[in-house]
Specification:
Blueprint lengths: L1 H24 L5 E3 L1 H11 L1 H21 L5 E7 L9 H4 L1 E10 L4 H67 L5 H36 L8 E3 L12 H11 L1 H23 L4 E9 L6 E8 L8 H46 L3 H17 L5 H36 L6
Parallel strand pairs: 1-4
Antiparallel strand pairs: 2-3, 3-5, 5-6
Helix pairs in contact: 2-5, 3-5, 5-6, 5-8, 5-11, 7-9, 8-9, 9-11, 10-11
């Protein structure tokens, strides 16, 4: 009976182990995400954004420190202790108990709070800079995946077409209608298209992994695919419109203005620091064998040499730096908008060149040449030339659409404003 029980337990454990192995081997299904979903995931779990948020928390912690007041100080002392430590030691001693506390003058605490609040606003402005730049970079990675997906589909289509051509050519060779040299040419050309497919697969897989890393979170769990297109959407922009958007929305320009406000707050704080603080103290002088008494004192530092000159000078320099940075960024914004708009208009013109009907023409040329070959009215070489022309034209078209999307993203980066309809 015991042996049957052991055998039953062994079978159960084996079944569980096999089930576990199959569960581990089951591949995780890919999630297909749109651009909006990618941005949502990115904002939630990108590790660079998480790190940037810590700067805000650090600045908020400084606000807590700025509100604190100086701690009081408790003192205890002995006096009249004989050097030879002889005699009635306790009765001959004088015991001093005292407490003192610094009193900040010049409104230092309120100015510390003001400076900490300004630095906190600056940290939030700098965080928005990180969001602005990384979000734009994420969109570029997303469209890179879409481009490589389109090129991969084109390479697969070409490979399928060539497989049919090789099969048809082999039939013609076997029938003695064409020479084996034509078949050799087709097979050599097929190698080129197979290489294109291998390169397209590589580029697509690398682009997907770049996107996975940019999304953040657990890299192993970010097994995603994309749903989107690089289809042409017409846009019309004016220079003045874009410049107004950029000057109002650019996070780096906003951060530069916040930096100047923080510098002003620090100047006021450093000016207040030159005012010495007042120290108030009081205590009891206890004489066991005599009369005890109260003590009271006031202390103030005399600013003979140190009047916080160095920190005050540094604060003024920081303001000048902030003003210079603001002017520099204002010029940078105008330059970015100007360059991005010029590039966008050139890319739009490139798209228009393809939209004149050339894509339809290369498709028709390949289809008609393939039909003519089957009817014996065309040659293999003519069909190969038509396929190469279509491949190169479509690849160029996809790249042009991608460049158009990138130029639109350059405009969004320059203006810090979503411009897609």
């Amino acid at each position: 009976m015991h042996q049957w029980r052991m055998l039953f337990q062994w079978i159960v454990l084996t079944l569980f182990a096999v089930a576990g192995i199959h569960a581990q081997e089951k591949p995780v299904a890919k999630r297909s995400i749109t651009l909006d979903q990618a941005v949502e995931i990115f904002m939630r779990q990108n590790l660079e954004l998480v790190a940037a948020r810590y700067d805000i928390e650090t600045a908020d912690a400084e606000k807590l420190t700025a509100r604190l007041r100086p701690n009081p100080q408790l003192t205890f002392g002995l006096a009249d202790l004989p050097v030879n430590l002889r005699g009635p030691l306790i009765k001959e001693q004088t015991y001093d108990y005292g407490i003192s506390r610094p009193i900040e003058l010049g409104g230092k605490r309120s100015k510390r709070i003001e400076t900490a609040n300004a630095n906190s606003d600056l940290a939030r402005g700098q965080f928005q800079m990180v969001v602005w730049q990384l979000t734009n970079d994420l969109k570029r990675k997303f469209y890179t995946v879409v481009l490589n997906q389109s090129l991969l589909n084109l390479a697969r289509e070409n490979q399928t077409t060539f497989a049919e051509i090789v099969k048809h050519t082999s039939e013609l060779v076997n029938a003695g209608e064409i020479s084996g040299l034509d078949l050799d040419r087709v097979e050599v050309e097929k190698l080129k298209f197979d290489t294109d497919l291998a390169n397209a697969e590589r580029d697509y897989e690398v682009a997907v992994r770049d996107l996975r890393f940019a999304l953040g979170g657990d890299y192993r769990a970010m097994d995603v695919d994309v749903t989107g297109s690089i289809d042409y959407e017409p846009h019309q922009f004016t220079h003045d419109e874009l410049l107004d958007l950029a000057l109002a929305a650019r996070p780096d320009l906003k951060a530069a203005k916040l930096s100047e406000l923080a510098a002003d707050a620090n100047i006021r704080l450093q000016n207040a620091q030159r005012i010495p603080d007042l120290t108030l103290g009081g205590g009891i002088e206890q004489v066991p064998s005599g009369t005890s008494s109260y003590t009271f004192g006031v202390g103030i530092e005399i600013p003979v040499s140190n009047r916080n000159q160095g920190e005050r000078a540094k604060a003024l320099i920081e303001k000048k730096k902030a003003q210079n940075q603001e002017q520099l960024l204002t010029n940078q914004v105008m330059s970015d908008v100007d360059k991005a708009l010029v590039a966008f208009e050139k890319q739009r013109h490139r798209v228009d060149l393809y939209r004149t009907g050339v894509i339809t023409k290369v498709n028709d040329i390949q289809n008609k040449t393939q039909i003519a070959l089957q009817a014996g009215e065309s040659s293999i070489l003519e069909l190969l030339d038509a396929i190469r022309t279509r491949r190169d034209t479509l690849s160029g078209f996809y790249q042009t659409l991608f460049d158009y999307q990138m130029s639109l993203l350059d405009l969004e980066l320059a203006t810090a404003t979503p411009l897609r309809k």
